[in-house]
Amino acid sequence: MQLQYFLILAAALFCIGIFGLVTSRNAIRVLMSIELLLNSVNLNLMAFSNYLDPEDIKGQVFAVFVISIAAAEAAVGLAIVLTIYRNRNTVDMEQFNLLKW
Amino acid sequence: MNLADGVQLVSFGILALMMIGAALGVVLLSNIVYSAFLLGLVFISMSGLYILLNAGFVAAAQILIYVGAVSVLILFGIMLVNKREDYVPVPNAWIGTVATASVCAGLFALLSAMVLATPWAISSAVPVGDGAVVVIGKHFFTDFLLPFELASVLLLMALVGAIVLARRDFFPEQTEEDQLVLPERPRELVSGGQK
């Protein structure tokens, strides 16, 4: 088991998350892609914590912070999606142009 | 390679395959309910990877928070905005998809090259393993005390903000005489000491 395996896996998950973030048209799927991104960052932090800093595990502390902030982000994001759905009656990302022009 | 390394490698392979497949399903499937359940599978395999990285506490926190809270929250969100709609096809949408895919593949290639080329300073110290809870608790209450308290304030703000955003701002019409009439007939007050 090496550090590089975990880092490459996290990079793959990050790229999948970016792809979903840009291409998906459902607003809830965009939120799911953001969760994927945060998880890949967490995997990076944990891998570094285990292989480079195994005694003073600050990476795990950072990962706990990231998890708690991701939970807050999911709650606020879903509330925003719900509000936009009530106003616009759609969850299509292509029709959300409130801040566009 | 001894037996423990082999077991670790095999379980890493299984978890990695499960996670990448489920993540691709989250992004590519057309039914969003399947995507939500596959997101839960991604979180569970991520927790298994944390256990492989000697972090049992964070793995348990991952299952509790992500699988137990965030996945359920997203499922409730899907139920609340559940509307069958056929998206209007955007002209030349495939150009954007292909461009995004190529950019993501390039980013992955760049990150992989960086990971493989960097000489990592691998520490040879023994990992703390199950003593991680003690070490994390010490970090939280000594050198990460301010971020810890700020995280609690942030969670409170997110709670209030989510309620304010998601609340319905619709009140039923109130007429003048409705406002001041009690639902039951007002009675005369009886003072306590007279009987």
Explain how this protein is built.
The complex is a heterodimer of chains A (101) and B (195). With 101 residues, chain A is mainly α. Helices cover 76% and strands 0% of the residues of chain A. Chain A has helices at residues 3-23, 27-51, 58-88. The termini of chain A are far apart. The model of chain A has no long low-confidence stretch (mean pLDDT 90). Chain B is an all-alpha fold and 195 residues long. Chain B is built from 7 helices and no strands. Chain B has helices spanning 3-28, 32-52, 56-80, 93-117, 132-141, 145-166, 176-180. The model of chain B has no long low-confidence stretch (mean pLDDT 86).
Task: List key phrases describing it.
heterodimer; A: 101 residues; mainly alpha; 3 helices; 0% strand; B: 195 residues; 7 helices; extended
Largest sheet of chain B: none
Separation, N- and C-terminal Cα atoms of chain B: 92 Å
Poorly predicted regions of chain B:
none
What distance lies between the first and last C-alpha atoms of chain A, to the nearest angstrom?
A: 51 Å
- Helix percent of chain A reads over 70%
Please state the structural category of chain A.
mainly alpha
Describe the protein's topology.
The complex is a heterodimer of chains A (101) and B (195).
Chain A: H1 3-23, H2 27-51, H3 58-88
Chain B: H1 3-28, H2 32-52, H3 56-80, H4 93-117, H5 132-141, H6 145-166, H7 176-180
Helix pairs in contact in B: 1-2, 2-3
